[in-house]
Amino acid sequence: MPDMNDIKYWVALNRVPQLGPVRFKRLEAHFGLLEHAWNAGLAQLRAAGLDERPAQEILAARARVDPDAEMERLEKAEWIGRGIDGIAHRATLDAGGRTIAVVANGLDMVYPGEHTELARQIQAHGAVVSEYPLGVRPDAKGFPRRNRLISGMSLGSLVVEAAEGSGARWTVYHALEQDREVFCVPGSIFSPASSFTNRMIQEGAKLVSNHRDVLEELNLGALGQPVAARQGELSFDPTKPDAAKPDPATLNSAKPRSSDSERPESVYPPAASVEPPDPEEAAILQHIGGEPLHIDDLGRKAGLPITSVSCVLTMLELKGMVKQVGCCITFELGR
Known about the structure:
This protein is mostly helical. It has helices at residues 7-13, 20-31, 34-38, 42-47, 52-64, 67-75, 84-94, 116-125, 142-152, 168-177, 195-202, 211-217, 227-231, 248-254, 279-285, 295-302, 306-318; strands spanning 99-103, 126-130, 156-159, 181-184, 206-207, 293-294, 322-325, 328-331. It has a three-stranded parallel beta sheet with strand order 3-4-5, sandwiched between helices.
């Protein structure tokens, strides 16, 4: 990837048909700066290793492609899907994490048009990935194909809600083919939106009721703790020349396993370390005590619409601060 001063020519050259990644690399190697490649004459392009046709395509592109205009289009693009896609990206960023958005179109396409700021945050704290060249518009057939990249890049896939005809089923099928874990959040048996997730749980997918279920299954429960605290005597300082290298057998035996029946509870963060609730979460929590409370009653007491209450409760459940009991909820300080 060129530096920021040269990136508009990288974008412009990606508009040239017949160029491709191999010829693109030849131009980079020969000219150094892509600006020089963009402004080169036919003889210079041929000297860089291009055949007549792709060299002529670059000359023709200069008459119809404005690098500055292409850069402006790219900077305005955003790629984040509606619904749970946007919620998952935003929650990760709010927690200080990194997230990757895999899109089914060129990175210069604006789709959908409602998460511009979120897209910028993802670029700053993660990455946006596409297998398509610039100029490819979003197409319904591209989304199921894109899902194989999502599942392949991940340790596991979590499906929150999906009907039998949902595109999420493609992610699940790809995950199974790629030997990845599949997690599903159960839902009402009367809800079509939960029919696929419920069936997947019935067929062996991991049922998820809170974040610890995922951490435990993927052996990630001890992340964030000092290595010595997790592995006892084991320590290794690579900055010391005479440091003894750790024994691979010891490393393997020290790793936590999801099958261990006596995993210490201390691998989970204490309830006090949970991020302080926002105003809406605080409004909900102050009305939850030891007795179960129906979601409708909770909405009336908190003075919030039922849709907001449902979203807030979902986030509180993921934080382990509340748990669902039948159709009601009750407050939980931690495991």
